[in-house]
Write a structure and sequence with these properties.
By secondary structure, the chain is mainly alpha-helical. The protein has a domain of 81 residues. It has four helices and no strands. Helix 2 packs antiparallel against helix 3 and helix 3 runs antiparallel to helix 4. It is globular, with a radius of gyration of 17 Å. The chain starts with a helix and ends with a helix.
Length: 120
């Protein structure tokens, strides 16, 4: 079931995109390289966050770590979108990445407020 849903999403996305070669030389430019580094760091933080959530599962801090996990997912999506847009694989409107970063900031803020409320 999951495969058929994922396949239909990929096929629908592939039908709307034009078939052009990716600009892989853009990966060596400093802004794209920095976005790639931030993406890798966000994925590493996401993995550590998942490990912490598995440790505090069912505890009081679970909800705050879920907010942090959401923030890291949004950060990774934002940076992945920027990298794919810069190498011309995927095109998204310019407002998508800042909106994802604002949502990431809101998720981190909610996680901090939840942690502060529990620890005070």
């Amino acid at each position: 079931m999951k495969r058929s849903i994922l396949l239909s999403i990929v096929l629908a996305g592939a039908a709307t995109e034009s078939s052009q070669a990716a600009n892989l030389t853009a990966l060596t430019q400093p802004p794209t390289l920095m976005n790639l580094v931030i993406f890798v760091i966000a994925v590493v933080c996401l993995v550590f966050c998942l490990q912490v959530i598995s440790l505090v599962r069912g505890g009081y801090l679970t909800k705050s770590w879920q907010f942090f996990l959401t923030g890291f997912v949004l950060l990774a999506l934002s940076q992945l979108g920027r990298v794919l847009s810069s190498i011309e694989v995927f095109t998204a409107p310019d407002w998508v990445s800042p909106v994802l970063l604002i949502l990431m900031t809101a998720a981190f803020l909610m996680g901090l407020l939840q942690t502060r409320r529990l620890l005070s």
